[in-house]
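To whoever is on call:

I kicked off a structure prediction for a single chain this morning and the downstream step that reads the tokens threw a length-mismatch warning. I double-checked the sequence; it's 289 residues and nothing unusual in it as far as I can see. Pasting both halves so you can look.
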Amino acid sequence: MNSLLVEHGFERHRDRAGAGPFTAAVFDFDGTISLLRGGWTGLMIEMMVASLDPLRRQGETPAELTQTILDFILEQNGRPTLYQMIRLTEEMAVRGGQPDLAEVYEQEFGRRLRLRIEERKSQISAAQVTADDWMVPGVRPFLQALAARGVELTLASGTYRDDVVLEAEFLGIADLFEGRIFGPTGDPRSFSKAAVIAEVAARQPGGAAAVIGFGDGVVETREMHQAGGYAVGIASDEEARSGVSVPWKRDRLIEAGASLVAPDFRNHTALSAWMEYLEQSGMLASPQD
């Protein structure tokens, strides 16, 4: 089975903690299913550089500042955008700036991002591209295959729930989750992916060991791993869609506790075969299997 994984660009890093079938799957949305927000990291960096560049420390190069920003953006990846903006205001204050409230920056980033999203939705509506062109490769048939097996699908996103529902409906995959779409509905600080995972696990006869999670962010990967589920890190190339894991995503996902890392779902039949192997072997399979 290891040769199958390697052949299709998957990396195995940890064994499964339990045995038996996977009865539930929890998915992140942006960068794991949807690419309507693809490239959001660059957009956020651009906005933050404008705020922090006047506050650069003596001897700090633009490249060093950009790396600092990227690091604290990715530390919060998977949580609501507000947390990244809180981190921005903290960095501005430490550097002697006088930041606005984090919510002001959140609103401005949201405005810029919505322009990009609407442009991409317009392309789909005008039949210039298909909905799948703005989705992570292979994710639709993979979701359909899981649903056909009777796996309970849940979507947990750091993006506001109303936006996620509308976009999932627009992409034509909302029905696969049967109403189990979660995200912030008011104060983003009251939302937690860990709570969603715990709720899903509590419904499964096999508990958390029967839950498999898919996400491109550190937060959902770490929380799935800590809950005792099987965390699959999706190191998706949101812009080029190369089918190769993005190094900075890959490294952080492994550190966060990913049991398996995949570049996307284009080899979803091999991914399904690996899931079945874990279920049928009672995995605790050895690294040589």
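Update from on-call: the warning came from a stale cache, not from the record. Cleared it. Sanity check on the structure: Residues 78 and 220 are 6 Å apart (CA to CA).
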